Please model this.
Amino acid sequence: AKYRYEIFSIQYASAVSDTYTFFGGHDDIFGTYLQNMKSKSVVDFNTTELNKDDCVITLSTCTSDDDTRYVVQARWIATY
Model:
């Protein structure tokens, strides 16, 4: 299958930041986390409202600073 995602956040994050939080389910805390990640984005993607039921991927890579990561987050919107 092919999956389509919508980017909602691009940010620089500490290697130990809350960006790397794992969640066991889709609850209100997860919804709050998504809003927080969207607000940290260095680019405004004009993403429609995120919610606790969204499925999200987080892509992360290192930078020239050992303690800083470049992070892209996106939500799943379709499967083809």
Q: What stands out?
A: The first helix runs from residue 28 to 39.
